[in-house]
Structure formats: C-alpha cells, structure tokens
Amino acid sequence: NAGTDQVVNENSLVNLDGTLSSDLEDGLPSSYLWQQTSGTPVTLTGPGTATPSFTTPEVTIDGDTLSFQLTVSDSQGLQATDNVVITVNNLDNPPIALITDASGTVISAIANNTQVTLYGNFSSDPDGNITSYSWSQAAGPTIINPGIGNTNQFSFTTPDSPGSTVDIQLMVTGNEPAVSNTAIVSLTLANLPPVVDAGIPQTFLEGETIYLHGLVTDPNNDIASMQWRQINCATTCISLPINDQEYINFTLPPISPAESGMVLDFELVATDSNGLFATATTSITLIDNGITTTYPETAISFYSNNSEEMAISLDSTDPANTATFNLIQPFSPDVITDTSDRPASFPYDLVDLEVITSNPGDTVEIILYYPEPIADGFDLYQYIDTNGWVDNSGSRDFDNLTYTVNGWAETSEQAQFSADRTQISIRVTDGGPGDADGLANGIISYINSGIGSAPANNHKQAGATGSISPVILLLMAWAYFICRARHNTGSPAG
Questions:
Q1: How many whole angstroms separate alpha carbon 289 and alpha carbon 245?
Q2: In angstroms, rounded to a whole number, what is the distance separating the alpha carbons of residues 228 and 440?
Q3: Rounded distance between C-alpha atoms, residue 228 and residue 232, angstroms
Q4: Angstrom distances, CA of residue 275 to CA of 189, 193, 278
Q5: Is residue 398's pLDDT more than 90?
Q6: Cα dihedral 254, 256, 260, 264 sign
Q7: Minimal CA–CA distance to 320: which of 277, 363, 286?
Q8: Distance from C-alpha of 339 to C-alpha of 334, rounded to nearest angstrom
Q9: Partner residues linked to 65 by β-bridges
Q10: pLDDT, tens only, 176-212
C-alpha cells in the first residue's frame, strides 16, 4: 500500500507513506523500495524505508504530476507493488522591485537641480525574468524632463528644492502577467558642494607664460563662480586676472639665481549658487632662466623662439591704472605663411603679448630690451591679419597718437627705439588699432610683432594708403575742365 494520492505546492516537503503495507503470514514486509516512475525527477530521502520524503520541484504554470512505485518483499522473497501520484501545483511568487543607482546600491538622497538616472534592472522574479517596468512620480515637487518610463532605467532632472523629498515609484511584472510588485524610493534632495581639481604640479622658467588647467564639476549643475588665487606670496606675489574660468594663464615674474627652485602655490575656488564652495591646490616650481644680462629691475627676461635672450617691461601711461602681462608667447615667423611685404629676417623671431589693464581703454607702454643694439635697417614689424605686414617704425609722437588703418598701413606713432637702439618702446591703447581684438575690454592683445629687416620685395611706407600721384591729379583736372567747357557750348563730349 503506497498511500493515498496527494496534491501539494511547488517547493513543498512531501512524505510518502507505505506503512499500511502488510504480509498475511509474517505481518509486515521485510523490505521496502520506492522508485519514481514519472514527472520531474526528485531526490528521495530514505527510499528503502516505509516513509521516504522529498521536496517538490518548481514547476510551470500548468503544474506537474509525479508518480512513485512502492515494492515490498517478504522473508521468502515474494514481492508486491503499489503506486501513488503526487500532483504539484505552481505557486505564483511575486517579483521583487528594487530601485538603485548604477552599481545596484539602494539610494535615499540625491543632489537637487541635477540630472539623475535610477535603475530597476536589479529587480528580480523568483519564477523567471522581469517582463515589464513602469516608472512614475508618487509624491514631492515635480521632477523635470522625465525620460521614458517603461524601461529598466529612468532619467529626470531633480527640482531645485534642497531639503524636499521626491518619491519615485517603480512597478515591475514577472513571468506571470497577473502578478506585479511595486517599490517606492524617497529621495531627499540635497545641495552638494562643487568638486574641484586644480591639476598636477608643474615646473617653469622665469619669464615663461604658464597655463593652469583645473576641472570643476557640480552635482547640482549650479556653479556660480570660479577663481584662481595665489596662496603663498610672502616674497613673490603674482597679480592674477579675474577670469571666472577653470583655466588661467599668466607670466612668471623675474627671480634671482638664489631664488631658483622656489615653489608657488595656487588655489582654485569654485562656489555654487547656494554659497557652498570647494577648493583644490596645485604648485609651480619657478626656475632661474640663466640669463645674466643686466636689465631694469622691473623687466622680465625670457628667451625668444630662436633661443635669443630678451627682456620686457610694462607700464600704464595713467599712474592711476595698473597693467600686467597675461601672456608672453615667443613663436616662429614661419607660422605666418603670408610672405608679401614680409621682412627679410627676424633676429629675435616674433612674440605675442597679452596685457590685462585695470581700466578698459587704457594706454600702456611696452618696452622690449635686447642684449645688444639693433642694427640700422631693422625696425619693429607687425603682421595684422586684415592688413598684412606693418612697419611700426618712423617718426612718432606718443602724445598725439593717430592711426589710419586701410589695407597696408604704417602706425608709426606706436613705437620708437632708444638712442642706443637696445630697446624699443611701444604704446598700445585698449581697443585701438594695435589691440588685436579691437575692444576696450581691459585686455590688450599685441600680436605677431618683432624686430625685422626691410622686406625683400616692395614695401609700402607711411602714407601709402591709396594716395594719387600729382600727374594723375593734373590729368583728372584737365579732363574735368574740358568736359565743363563742351557742356557750356553745347558740343558733344569727346
């Protein structure tokens, strides 16, 4: 007797019962043997006993039928068999909904006013796979620009409402379409500070232009300001431009050989619209450039692109204003491919200069120093993109600067050599013709300039702005009077 048939659920413990088996002569069988004859295979515990057990398997929605045969034997070896049927029903286990970040970590706080993506792909179904996702907002200030709500990810912009709570709901459906589950995550909106990286330490020579490149990010996307500053200027202080950007460039000051190796520390500060800020620091090691020629104390010595030593100083023509070099960039004249009217040679190559002034529209005086006198026949030339090469030499009057720039022009008022020709003074007005950007914005860009010899081809000198020769003027006047005379006598024009 294998017992009565049973109906059980999947993942359930089942006990088979053969204790009602008997022998008419001996009373009880001498041995028992249970064997499964159909259905999903299971493992019997105690198949040689009267009461073995097993755990029903997971089955499909249609369930499964398991059949078992019991064979009993007496002491004389006679046997008898009986069968029992165990019907296994499918249980519809609900899926598990889970809202996490990209790593699978359940979150409870997030930055306000920022783009966020929530993930539902860590949800699961004990009976199979998740077949659908449905996202929605359950409570809190309205989220902005919500993305597609029927995928395993959900992106949106959190409200700019620090301290508030936004509830996001995810409903997932598993293998059994009739069963779903819902999870709700409450995200507390927080204003997080910016994240700042000031870049790696660098080493430069005195007189070189350096570039500090930082990186600023903000979880809330609301950076209000960024500013670089020097944080150890007990002996060497540098006037940094206010640029409100992650990067900055400026020219390193002169130092003595004994000061070579000094370290200058700089800090980048980023502040968000709620006043939270973060800082990061980097350092510049300043090395003596080895130039031994004596220049004025305020001059910055540096090497030209072709490794010739030079120096430069700067002053505002208005004592109430200040001016500093933001850029000193030597470069090769070969960069400029226009050779028309180009000087034959450049003993010190070319240099780009950028000056920051405290007062827009200010006029500054730039003085370039050379280790030996500039030979006769060499003047200061400049290449202006819209005008070509310009000779900035000739007679000049610093107190009465006038400029006419039409095509090829000579702004001779702009520069003059010293008596010994070891230095040349240049006056440039912010927003004037010598300023490359043409704007009175506190930034003077004096570019593509250098000492050069006379051009090998024909070069237009001062006043060559389309003037008409006297002979042509006489011919034009003669033609005018002939036409007037014929008009007055009624004769046809010749």
A1: 29
A2: 24
A3: 13
A4: 16, 9, 10
A5: no
A6: negative
A7: 363
A8: 9
A9: 87
A10: 666 677 888 888 888 888 999 999 999 999 999 888 9
Residue type at 106 in one-letter notation = V
Which residues make Cβ contacts (< 8 Å) with residue 364, sequence separation at least 6?
A: 314, 315, 316, 317, 323, 355, 357, 427, 428, 430, 444
Residue 117 and residue 157: Cα distance in Å, rounded? 9
Q: Give per-residue pLDDT as tens, 363-381.
A: 999 999 999 999 988 888 8
Which tokens is 223 given? 């950076």
List 364's β-bridge partners, or say none: 316, 428
pLDDT value of residue 467: 37
Give the predicted TM-score (pTM) of the model.
0.55
Asked if 478 and 464 count as a contact pair (C-beta separation under 8 A), the reply is no
- What is the side-by-side order of every strand in the sheet holding 165-173? 109-111, 180-190, 165-173, 132-139
Q: Are the beta carbons of 111 and 101 closer than 8 angstroms? A: no
Amino acid identity of residue 343, one-letter, is: P
pLDDT at residue number 491:
37
Phi-psi region of 479 (alpha: psi -120 to 50; beta: other; left: phi over 0): alpha
Cα–Cα distance, 281 to 212 (Å, whole number): 11
